Amino acid sequence: AMEGGPSVRIREGDCAVLKRDEVFKAVSVLRRRKIIFEKQWFYLDNAIGHIYGTTFEVTSGGNLQPKQEVEETTTETKEAGTDNRNIVDDGKSQKLTHDDIKALKDKGIKGQEIVQQLIENSTTFRDKTEFAQDKYIKKKKKKYEAVITIVKPSTRILSTMYYAREPGKINHLRYDTLAQMLTLGNIHAGNKMIVVETCAGLVLGAVMERMGGYGSIIQMYPGGGPVRAATSCFGFPKPFFDNLHEFPLSKVQSLLSGTFTTETLPADSEDNSLVEEESNGLSEEKRTSLQETEEEPATEAPMESNPTEEQDTMDINAEDVEFKENKEKENKENVREKQIKQWERRKKLKEAAALLREKNADGLIVASKFHPTPLLLSLLEFVAPSRPFVVYCQYKEPLLDCYTKLRERGGVINLKLSETWLRNYQVLPDRSHPKLTMSGGGGYLLSGITVVLEKGKFDSSNSEALKMEEPSSKRCKLQDLPC
Amino acid sequence: MSFVEYGDTIKDGDTAIVFLGHESMFPVKVQHGTVTQTKYGVIRHSTDLIGKKYGSKVTCSKGGWVFILHPTPELWTMNLPHRTQILYSTDISIITMMLELKPGSIVCESGTGSGSLSHALIRTVAPTGHLYTVEFHQQRAEKAREEFREHGLEHLVTVTNQDVCKNGFGVSNIADAVFLDIPSPWEAIGHAKSALKAEGGRICSFSPCIEQVQRTCLAMEEYGFTEINTLEILLRVYNVRTISLQIPDLGKAAEDNSSTGFDSSNPSHQGSLCADLQQGTVQFKSGVPLREVVGHTGYLTFATKS
């Protein structure tokens, strides 16, 4: 089955996600590879063969051991206070010192036992209310009981992870906003989608997951090549990439005007994606500049092996000459390989161009750091009529402009500017309430549906329908609401 | 046409969406020889619709025009005949993502209701997945079956007419995900667990009241579900408008124009100030929130069986 994806068991070489409470980290499952997660280090070797979703304890030496379901040890005396009128904060309620706790840890005592000792040595624990005791235990468990769950990557997990860990890399696209995009865009198996994103490949991965390997995707990329660091975290099977095409944004205008050729390729996309993967930890600015500097040498690369350069080497000292000669040798060996690669890239580029020229895409998804207006005005040309499009922007103002320009252009209906709010809840007996904090902003969406674009001006005989489209304050009644 | 596969042209038997203007549309079953009345006049299916491209502008008998759109689960949700309260696309989107649905997923749902969520679920799990949906109301179950058939989806869905709380989903150990939108979801958690695959899966329950959520969470914990998480998603729609705000009169113009200074008791003077004020406006584009918005649909509780 095409949508098979990774197996239910953890295998060597898999892309997996580590989870501790609400914190996620994507990793490759490799033997003898030290992993650092939430201030702990361990090896994943022992996890191989277990079912995804298994929870492990970190034992001494950094080994993982499946956590046994333990009966809660709180079966003993259920003694608790009713209020805190007599609880004084003197800083002396815990009889164990920092050194005592460290000693326990160094002895390799299980976290669970440390928590029990902390409870027994707390003079105020018994006076705390039942709820306060519960809270105390939960807090200590979180600190001392190091349990890690290994889960299968999915859009749910990766988009939550990226939003929490590296929101800057995905333009602060919150996961509920991404969910909206996939639904508003009617992403499903069999589609021919156009995707423009500078969200580390997360949006592309989300679209690929929903298409399950059926249909085709044309990713339009800026600079030297598409960034797919997040896409690779999904661990998609190989066939998913068979119908994934890429096309440089810098060639869109020439494709639309009919002057497009594959003679000048943008910088080698493979080299570029490598740079991107390595620069995972770098800031956005640094990444961009790397991407830009990468472009030049890559297009020049085949030239370097050209023997006419010999003269230049005369002035340089011997070491450099030797180095350069070695490099040239290497380059010569690589030339053929590079030429083959170039040829393959041209072929792929031609394929992507041909797909776009059909101008019958089933949708357009944009989530980038660029101003959305020029992207939309150009790329909608490639989309068939009666198909949805969705544009994400971290800010509302560019979408106001985009909305206005799309109205002027025509060929779109049902334009909608929206935002979602997400509120998480704590649900516990007698203690249910919204969580203390919620995200302040997860970006904005402009969505709509394409229709047949009439090149001439709309006939004014039925301007009523157009007017109806422009919402006026008078029409702002309850029945206009989406639900 | 099908809800799970785009087609280019309108065919006899299709369900199409007639788009009249801002959020004003309705579904139509395309049939040779049939006519549809709109406020812009009559649409004759044989000549105006069949064979035309989806997304075309169709001129009605009175000279007015409408657009004919390809159906999607989202458009269907906005236009379907209500037999119950329905779920809207905002909730549906987060449900779909949090349940980790994709092509090939096996999903259990109850109740079927008006089929708003069902269409979206089928769209996402097609072509190799399947939806098992349970509806205890016989007439609604029958109507849903009929709709799925009309929409070319019958091979992707099984509608069962029974009480999910008493009899479960009619399947066991095959589902990747379970969705509950019933008044007492806590009574169906056990059935949900047995419907899910042995190696695990995801569950979601939708409830309008917090008391329902509390009982559901307790039941989920009792049945060993983990990662129990309750959330609420709200949609905010903005109207795009050009706003112009007046520049207040702080007497500046008066001082510049007249040596006598500002004098409010002088009517002729005031007249000239008003003219200045009319010119003194600043225009800008704004996204204006609707005057009244949906503040609550329901709480969504998600959990994992592992």
SSE blueprint and pairings:
The complex is a heterodimer of chains A (483) and B (306).
Chain A: E1 15-20, E2 23-28, E3 34-37, E4 40-43, E5 55-59, E6 63-66, H1 98-106, H2 111-120, H3 130-144, E7 147-151, H4 155-165, H5 175-184, E8 192-197, H6 202-211, E9 216-221, H7 229-233, E10 244-248, H8 252-257, H9 269-278, H10 284-304, H11 310-313, H12 318-357, E11 363-367, H13 372-379, E12 388-393, H14 397-409, E13 412-426, E14 433-434, E15 444-450, H15 463-469
Parallel strand pairs in A: 8-9, 8-11, 9-10, 11-12
Antiparallel strand pairs in A: 1-2, 1-7, 3-4, 5-6, 5-7, 12-15, 13-14, 13-15
Chain B: E1 15-21, E2 24-29, E3 35-38, E4 41-44, H1 45-49, E5 57-59, E6 65-69, H2 73-79, H3 89-98, E7 106-110, H4 116-125, E8 130-134, H5 138-150, E9 157-160, H6 164-167, E10 177-180, H7 189-195, E11 201-207, H8 210-222, E12 226-246, H9 252-257, H10 267-279, E13 281-289, E14 299-305
Parallel strand pairs in B: 7-8, 7-10, 8-9, 10-11
Antiparallel strand pairs in B: 1-2, 1-6, 3-4, 5-6, 11-14, 12-13, 12-14
Helix pairs in contact in B: 2-4
